Amino acid sequence: MADYIVRATAANAQIRAFAATTRELVEAARKAHDTSPVVTAALGRLLTGGVMMGTTLKGEKDLLTLQVSGDGPMKGMTVTADSQGNVKGYAIKPQVMLPPSALGKLDVGGAVGKGMLRVIKDMGLKEPYVGQTTLQTGEIAEDLTYYFATSEQVPSSVGLGVLMEKDNTVKQAGGFIVQLMPFTEDTVISKLERNLAEFSSVTTVLNEGKTPEEMLNLVLKGMDVEITDTMPARFYCNCDKKRVEKAIISIGKKEISEMISENKPIEVNCHFCNTFYNFSVEELKAVLKKCSK
Ligand SMILES: [Zn+2]
Q1: Domain 4-235 part of CATH 3.40.50.300
Q2: Is the pTM value of this prediction over 0.90?
Q3: How far is the CA of 238 from the centre of ligand 1 (A)?
Q4: End-to-end C-alpha distance for the chain, whole angstroms
Q5: Longest dimension (CA), the chain
Q6: Rounded to the nearest whole angstrom, what is the distance from the C-alpha of residue 239 to the centroid of ligand 1?
Q7: Ligand 1 center to residue 237 CA distance, Å?
Q8: Quick check: 94 and 39 in contact, CB under 8 A?
Q9: DSSP 8-state assignment for residue 221
Q10: 90 alpha carbon to ligand 1 midpoint, in Å?
């Protein structure tokens, strides 16, 4: 099943919902960054949350960034999504290993630790929107739920999951976000609570071969789910040598001259997709000429 996101409404538009299957994009992130299983799970959950949240952006060039910083061994991670299902991201310490949690699961909360979640929406205005909340568990889904409730005042339920194969590749990944509109009736809320209590888990459902649509039909059982659209999702970074060159130009003449004087090619790495760009001394000299300061 190729990665995609579905958006839906339910209970006469009293509920808005998203669901996604993201196995391929989480596996692409794992390969790009050579992440350990616990980091694959952590980053995969954040990528999945981010790519669903990105679809709420209005403008084609708008970007949504989720930044987790914690005192755990992974230190933090950053994910950026656009409105068209493209998402990229990285963890600060991609190879962290931890023993499983008490429940025998990958200890994502332990890898993240205590800290903050920042949500940055860049909508082409002078100042981006920034919402910041305290991490609740570091397990990501609960942290996003808390963010929606406190920062956006939207009561939400978020489920995110990454299941690994024995060889540490990604077997299943996906998630859902269910949000209540301000006028949601109490009967709808209690029905939703019952459904959520009966719901096994994102990865269990996906591993049974169910689609994101079927996942929403379980979470929103008996609530007349209406799928409003579907969109492919992918791990995609828009970096290229031109952009990296711009970044080098921005560090200024003095530093570039110092690089040239060392008479060695340099290697620049894109954090988001881990692509390396090489610049020869000749190329650096050409970059230097483009510097204004
Ligand atoms: Zn990149």
Answers
A1: no
A2: yes
A3: 6
A4: 51
A5: 72
A6: 4
A7: 5
A8: yes
A9: T
A10: 10
Residue ranges of domains in the chain: 4-235, 241-289
Spell out the long-range contacts of 74-78 with Cβ–Cβ below 8 A and sequence spacing 24 or more: 74/38, 74/39, 74/42, 74/111, 74/112, 74/113, 76/112, 76/115, 77/39, 77/42, 77/43, 77/46, 78/271, 78/272
How far is the centre of ligand 1, averaged over its atoms, from the C-alpha of 151 (Å)? 30
User: Token digits for 198?
Assistant: 């009966």
Ligand 1 mean position, distance from CA 273 (Å): 4
Tokens of 11: 């209970």
**Distances in whole angstroms, Cα of residue 57 to Cα of each of 76, 96, 129, 264, 265:** 24, 33, 12, 43, 40
Strands 86-91 and 156-164: unpaired
Q: What are the beta bridge partners of residue 29?
A: none
Tens digits of pLDDT across the chain (293 residues): 899 999 999 999 999 999 999 999 999 999 999 999 999 999 999 999 999 999 999 999 999 999 999 999 999 999 999 999 999 999 999 999 999 888 889 999 999 999 999 999 999 888 999 999 999 999 999 999 999 999 999 999 999 999 999 999 999 999 999 999 999 999 999 999 999 999 999 999 999 999 999 999 999 999 999 999 999 999 999 999 999 999 899 988 999 999 999 999 999 999 999 999 999 999 999 999 988 76
Fold of 241-289: CBS domain Like (3.90.1280)
Give the Å distance between the CA of 258 and the centre of ligand 1: 25
Say how far apart CA 72 and CA 187 lie, in whole Å: 40
Please provide residue 199's backbone torsions phi and psi, each rounded to the nearest 5 degrees: -70, 130
Please give the distance, rounded to the nearest whole angstrom, from the Cα atom of residue 206 to the centre of ligand 1: 29
Q: Can you name the residues that pair with 255 across neighbouring β-strands? A: none
